[in-house]
């Protein structure tokens, strides 16, 4: 996966992103009329403009820092949305949200848009998933990233629910118990 500046935003691109999109579409029987390269937006165009305007960082510096982010721990959780309209793959990427917080930006509900149309005013986080049993497919590391992601996004009650599930499914993994507090 690579992070780069394209069409005014900074996003994550690459074969893995394309694979996540294609696998999710096939699994959920989503018609994929999407034509642009699949991507996951890290920093939106208006956020870049705000950061540069406030002289907090140059565009080049922002892109350079973003390219240093750890991208091995990006996890697809499943498909959210309506298969007849806007739909997306819900993603977890804690390194991306930590980077955003360091820049003074809010946490982002990372996702890969599958449909040709998009609605930027729709919840694209964990609560938007169509499969409520998605956690059964996650291993302990992915569960931990989900718990941390919920905490980063201010969803402490949801994080606690997932941490309890993590402890029940993986009692030998200490992180679950630590996440319970």
TrEMBL record:
<dbReference type="Pfam" id="PF22547">
    <property type="entry name" value="2H-SAK"/>
</dbReference>
<feature type="domain" description="Swiss Army Knife 2H phosphoesterase">
    <location>
        <begin position="8"/>
        <end position="120"/>
    </location>
</feature>
<dbReference type="InterPro" id="IPR054498">
    <property type="entry name" value="2H-SAK"/>
</dbReference>
<protein>
    <recommendedName>
        <fullName>Swiss Army Knife 2H phosphoesterase domain-containing protein</fullName>
    </recommendedName>
</protein>
């Amino acid at each position: 996966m690579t992070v780069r500046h394209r069409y005014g935003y900074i996003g994550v691109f690459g074969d893995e992103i394309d694979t996540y999109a294609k696998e999710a579409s096939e699994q959920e029987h989503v018609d994929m009329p999407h034509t642009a390269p699949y991507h996951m937006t890290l920093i939106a165009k208006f956020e870049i403009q705000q950061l540069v305007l406030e002289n907090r960082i140059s565009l080049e510096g922002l892109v350079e820092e973003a390219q240093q982010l750890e991208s091995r721990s990006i996890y697809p959780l499943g498909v959210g949305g309506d298969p007849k309209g806007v739909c997306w793959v819900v993603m977890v990427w804690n390194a991306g949200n930590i980077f955003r917080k360091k820049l003074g930006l809010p946490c982002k509900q990372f996702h890969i848009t599958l449909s040709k149309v998009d609605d930027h005013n729709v919840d694209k986080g964990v609560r938007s998933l169509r499969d409520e049993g998605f956690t059964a497919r996650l291993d302990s590391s992915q569960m931990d990233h989900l718990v941390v992601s919920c905490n980063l996004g201010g969803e402490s009650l949801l994080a606690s629910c997932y941490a309890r599930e993590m402890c029940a499914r993986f009692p030998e993994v200490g992180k679950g118990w630590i996440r319970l507090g």
